[in-house]
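User: These chains co-purify. Model them together.
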Amino acid sequence: MTDPQPPGTLSDQLLDRAAPDRTAFEDLVVVPILAVFIALVLGALTMFATNVDLPTIGRSYVALLEGSVGSLSAISETLTAAMPLTLAGLGIALGFRAGLFNIGAEGQVLIGGMAAVIVGFSFDGLPAAIHLPLALLAGAIAGGLYASIAGWLRAATGAHEVISTIMLNLISYRLVDYLLRLDFIQREGRADPISRSVLETAELPRLLTWIDANLRLHAGIFLMLAAVVVIHWLLFRTKLGFEFRASGASPDAARYAGMRAGLIIVLAMGMAGALAGLAGANQGLGVLGRATPGFSAGIGFDAIAVALLGRSHPYGVLLAGLLFGALEAGGRQMQVDAGVSIDLIGIIQALIIVFIAAPLLVRSLFPWAFRKLAKVGRE
Amino acid sequence: MDVELRGITKRFGSVTANRDVDLKVTSGEVLGLLGENGAGKSTLMNVLCGLYSADEGEILIDGKPVAFAGPGEAIAAGIGMVHQHFMLIPVFTVAENVVLGVEPTGRFDHLDLRRAREQVRAINDDYGLEVDPDALVENLPVGIQQRVEIIKVLFRSADVVIFDEPTAVLTPQEVEDFFNIVKGLRDDGKAIVFITHKLNEILEIADRISVLRAGEIVGGGEVGELNAAELAELMVGRPVSFDVKKTPFDPGEVLLEVEDLTVLRDNDDLAVDRIDLTVRRGEIVGIAGVQGNGQSPLIEALTGLRRVAGGTVRFKGRDITHASARDRHKMGFAHIPEDRQRTGLIPAFTIAENMVLDSYYEDRFSAGPNMRWSAVNAAAAQAAADFDVRTKSVFNTVATLSGGNQQKVIVARELSRDTEFLIAAQPTRGLDIGSIEYIHSRIVEAREEGDGVLIVSSELDEIMALSDRILVMFKGRIVAEYDGASAEKGVVGLAMAGAAA
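Assistant: Joint model of the two components:
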């Protein structure tokens, strides 16, 4: 036992932070990096096993790199693809933190995007300063309300959100199909389900057209960055975030501490849906300019992977979103340059998640990486 | 069969859990292994039953050195362990659980459950265990489940039986039955190791005692040569006082008034049946009772965590029957929940975060939507220092603390603010003597400051030591009331078993 000390100094000592845990650092940084590396190697082996010759494999990975970060246009594409993934991924991460497994981002992206597009092509003559925020807000609210259904079902009846959000996804596909054939939404003179075009005043403006008219990077990037900062603030700096995290870590302890579990579930689901809705609005107003059946294109599901890869931390989600955006942009280039199917990118993404989920496997594959880091960490 | 441990040392990284431990247990004898939580008792026994291998030292069976590569070899050598947390499959029957892993099989791998049942019955009869081999384990009370674990060990023909904190989950009545079973095993020639931190139990059941402190054997002897005070001092390393010092009983105004309170369980069974109860300022009211007689629902109802089905609860004259947990917290309620891991704390959160788990919303710790983390951290550090939470930093997670220190975090959180009424449920369950002493002194301090205190505990000794007034709860009703100073333990114990109902 240590000698008794005056309480003042002891309480000051207790405020010392321990040095960051080496294992935590390895889990957060080293494992994801190695997971990406292994996934790329296995991707190459997959190509090799399907009779792609070595030079083509080499060329395809060069194309992957070039297509993602090799030029201004590539970076623009990477960022454009990263935006909805990051936004929806933040929503999923928020849910994870609150103990909710929200599989419904895909449906929330669709509903949010649909609402944003509807507002976007209505209200002709509104100034952009009002029209664009209004359309974004509509997307966020619609996505949020749609997700709240699952939250409310969970809070009021105990229905598990995994089941209800999957069902809501299915409903959303058909709902969008139905909406797209309504007179006031369907584009005039078209028989196929496609919405009217978003008015220019509601478009997320493209940022780099002064360099090259084909650069698609748009103002959604500010939305993405702001969302990362806001969600970080919400989770770690606010009372509500503390309630979310407490409910996620131990619902019983949170209830005993007087937190209102039902309200927290509905709020967390609502916010997660709002972020997914924003991702949909980002696509509708910034990239597509209209809504078509299935315009969400799997963003809501990729976002689950992004949230997992980002360890449900807002900055982690941003990095993961950028990586997945890069893979998507680079994958398109790979298909063009090397003729390798873009499906390979899906395989690589899936492999990354597999290895992220199995840190012990990564550790056993690369014991030297962790030992070496141990020494660096001690210095 | 005699088993001897010689010079056992076991290290985990830089931590030495056991250092140079010598221990001997012979057949027909109960060895009591006494030690506080974290003294290394479980590690030592895990070495003996093959789960860990020792870094130094050897295990001798009947004088011959043996080495176990795993638990399977230890079982084959006749060493069986009944763990503190039962390892049973709830949806299987007793017989199925017993034969699991060593199933008697017939042709084509046919599972011969009939033979299994007979074997279970035979063990039953030999030791008077009275367990129905066909009962589903999930339907059995905890005491009977423990017997199933004992049958499992005997079924594997163990000659050495290790019990790890066997009475922690038992009611006083079940403890008595359990002791009879242990004596039966001993008289049958089994060697028994009985691990516990409860002094009175070890004095009752053990023939010989060894005391473990900080991984080392610090003393022991035949049971007749030792008394409780000596053992406690050996175990803790300093003299321990069992008496709680209290100022004379001088209650003030009525603080909490409960009338006709009726509370239901989740499945709508009656849990609390029209209870009347008052707690005054400066008074400790203890509710004694065997677990499962409605104490938990009563506490949940009083703290606003469970809906009240009937009756009223008044606090300082105001009706709070349907007030939320948060509202009661604001009125000055402090609540030490019975299950610190599940409901009292969030193990993955830091000490600082846990310190404000129920007061984070107060102006001290937040401004508008924002948390004031610097204020939280400073207050948490102060509380941790004031309440003797042993840790390096308040940024460590609660999961890294020992049970006693975890409980001190809860006590610090609940009592470091201005409180009027304290509800403590099983406040010292599973804690070491040092922590119990400390937490008791804090509870008495709350009383001294004029708080009303309601304690619910299944440890009768704790109720007897602390209470000014003792209520006995049985099947959802208050069946008896005693004056704390003059109550007799035997009488209260009988009331707990339903004699007064």
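Residues 83-309 of chain A form one domain.
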